[in-house]
Amino acid sequence: MIIIMKTGTERDVITPVIERIQELGLQAHPIIGEGQAIVGVVGLPLPPSLDEMFEVMPGVERVVRVSKKYKLAGWDFHPQKTVIRIDDVAIGGDEVTIIAGPCSVESEEQTMDSARAVKALGAKLLRGGAYKPRTSPYEFRGMGVKGLEILAKAREETGLKIITEVMTPSDVEVVGQFTDIFQIGARNCQNYLLLEEVGKATKPVMLKRGLSLLIEEWLLAAEYVMAQGNPNVILCERGIRTFENATRNTLDVSAVPVLQSMSHLPVFIDPSHAAGKRPLVGALALAGVAAGADGLMIEVHPNPDLAMSDGAQSLDFDEFAALMPKISAVAEAVGRSLPIATGVAI
Ligand code: PEP
Ligand code: MN
User: Fold this and answer.
1) What is the model's pLDDT at position 346?
2) How far is the CA of 185 from the centre of ligand 1 (A)?
3) What is the pLDDT of residue 345?
4) Ligand 1: does its nearest atom lie under 6 Å from the Cβ of 141?
5) Is the Cβ atom of 208 under 6 angstroms away from ligand 1?
6) Residue 30's CATH number
7) What is the pLDDT of residue 69?
8) HSE on the CB side for 230, CA within 13 Å?
9) Ligand 1: which of 135, 165, 248 to mutate, most ligand atoms within 8 Å of CB?
10) For residue 214, how many other CB atoms are within 10 A of its CB?
11) Less CB within 10 Å around the terminal CB: N or C of the chain?
């Protein structure tokens, strides 16, 4: 923090400012020139109310914050990139991580078929919602605990890790008994009580970007999780609201390098919810990896036309099989890797 003194302020007016900084256990670094003076304040923690405290002191022109509001998510105090390990899966390392599966868990058969197919094609995690945030209350809202049990069964059979959405603080405990990663949906990205509840849990959290959230607000949402003691947050860009309606949302590809310049947390792209339309999903997936995403989350369904949610944006197994080698090639081209099996029967 830098305190800028008013032009012409005398030293005897600057001294109380320096003393106040020292009384607070912080270091004061004054630079006093001809008629101009600034005082640097260094030390942690800098309470949020500090700005106002100094702004009203005699001789103070204004106070400028230099350090970021997002302390835990930012690079300043964490110079290494975060790599989240779940057994043999490393998220945020050299390898691009693919999460795939249906929008919703609809039945055991649909989930098991999806799990086997995406596993054979190189995905490391299975996605599937058991609690679904639907825009209309009259749409399918998920199978609840039964859905979680089906996901756990798919993990047992395939070895895939699982990720599923938790919508409310009171469900964190039950979802945590089944899932490997908590998914916080776009609609709940600023549900601070939910963020704090998953922050108290030990499993990683994927935080999807809110529909109209600024990147700094998103990082502050991640900060809510991290401030409770859970450092393992993955950020997932899934498209934002813009004036454009040719796609369901507008994929903000620039969020990938922007986030990576601001934060050490892994960044994913969800091309499915951004596109809203199956034929566009592949291009957005490739764009995400080209931009440097650490992973993708893609909706894949055995029969998208019959899906109970988001069928129009879900790939079938053949489409997913055709996309994976392309993702792998783009990953290689940008210095990452994505090992995929070739010639697998699905
Ligand atoms: C989903 O992943 O199925 C989902 C509901 O996504 P979002 O929260 O990004 O809309
Ligand atoms: Mn969906």
Assistant:
1) 66
2) 5
3) 65
4) no
5) yes
6) 3.30.70.1140
7) 84
8) 23
9) 165
10) 11
11) C
Q: Is 236 in the pocket of ligand 1 (CB under 6 A)?
A: no
**Sign (positive/negative) of CA torsion 282, 125, 297, 92?**
negative
Place of tokens 């903000």: 252
pLDDT computed for residue 343 by the predictor: 64
Ligand in closest contact with the CA of 133: 1
Whether residue 20 is found in the same domain as residue 155: no
Pair 272, 132 in one domain: yes
> Do 133 and 241 sit in the same domain of this protein?
yes
Domain count along the chain: 2
**274 touches ligand 1 (CB under 6 Å):** no
Say yes or no: 136 and 275 in one domain: yes
Residue 174 shares a structural domain with residue 137? yes
What pLDDT does residue 45 have?
A: 72
pTM for this one? 0.88
Q: Is 129 in the pocket of ligand 1 (CB under 6 A)?
A: yes
Ligand 1 near 103 CB (within 6 A): yes
130 and 269 fall within a common domain: yes
In the reported structure, the alpha carbon of residue 309 is separated from the centroid of ligand 2 by a whole-number distance in angstroms of: 6
Low-confidence ranges of the chain (pLDDT < 50): none
Q: Render the burial of 139-165: b for 16+ CB within 10 Å, e for the rest.
A: eebbbeeebbebbbebbeebebbbbbb
Task: Judge if 59 and 188 occupy the same domain.
Answer: no
